[in-house]
Specification:
alpha/beta, TIM Barrel, 8-stranded parallel β-barrel, 10 strands, about 20% strand, binds the ligand O=C(O)c1ccccc1N[C@@H]1O[C@H](COP(=O)(O)O)[C@@H](O)[C@H]1O
């Protein structure tokens, strides 16, 4: 028997609990909520527990990810366990030292997003190994932190084999995923704007199409 393993899929930037239930029920592994106030996908802290509870109702194994950027110490209380998320994704300019401090102070898993502007930026990955649970690579875009639909050139990532598990973000969608999985071997994929009707509102048909394309990929 040949066992085929697929990367995990996170769908990010949800704002509606009903969408969280439906997307988790499709078999998505993780759902992301944006806690960055400047984002059009921002969800206020008071609304996050309901969204994550709705996610859990849709899929028992689906876990919640809270996306933040350079959180200050005053924000740490809302990032801890007990609010429905299992992971905090650090999507700002957090240094290795700040990640280490946050890992000591927060009782949730930590992922560090690296926004990649050039192949040399990938060299930063090694320093985060053992500090955070996983890395997430997203494309760099001036003036915007994420959710841009911008892709990292695939050629930059061929041969990228960090010591930590890694997730690929940036313009992931049903049309591009087969090529990405044929050439790259991420542990997970993170998709947002390519699945949207408008910011914060996912198109369930496109989420299902992405899952189908991942499962149809020969090398996923
Ligand atoms: O989605 C946002 O608005 C956002 C804002 C601030 C930080 C991160 C954000 N999103 C992250 O970016 C990736 C990639 O998005 P896309 O697929 O290229 O649209 C997304 O999955 C979030 O993790």
């Amino acid at each position: 028997m040949v066992l085929v393993s697929f990367p995990l899929l996170k769908v990010c930037g949800l704002r509606e609990p009903a969408q969280a239930t439906a997307i988790a029920a499709l078999g998505v592994d993780a759902i992301g909520v944006i806690a960055v106030p400047s984002s059009p996908r921002f969800l206020p802290a008071a609304q996050r527990p309901d969204l994550f509870a709705a996610m859990a109702a849709g899929g028992r194994d689906c876990f919640g990810v809270l996306v933040v950027a350079d959180p200050c110490d005053d924000q740490l209380e809302e990032l801890g366990a007990g609010r429905g998320h299992a992971v905090v994704q650090l999507h700002g300019s957090e240094s290795v030292e700040r990640c280490r401090e946050l890992a000591q102070r927060l009782d949730v898993r930590l992922w560090k997003a690296l926004r990649v502007r050039s192949p040399e930026d990938l060299e930063a990955a090694a320093a985060y190994a053992g500090v955070v649970e996983a890395l997430l690579l997203d494309a760099w875009q001036p003036g915007q932190l994420g959710g841009t639909g911008q892709r990292i050139p695939t050629a930059w990532l061929e041969g990228f084999r960090p010591a930590s598990p890694w997730w690929l973000a940036g313009g992931v969608g049903p049309e591009t995923v087969a090529e990405l999985l044929e050439r790259l071997h991420p542990d997970g994929l993170d998709a947002s704007s390519a699945l949207e009707d408008r910011p914060g509102v996912k198109n369930l048909g496109r989420v299902a199409a992405l899952l189908a394309a991942m499962r149809g990929s020969p090398t996923g």
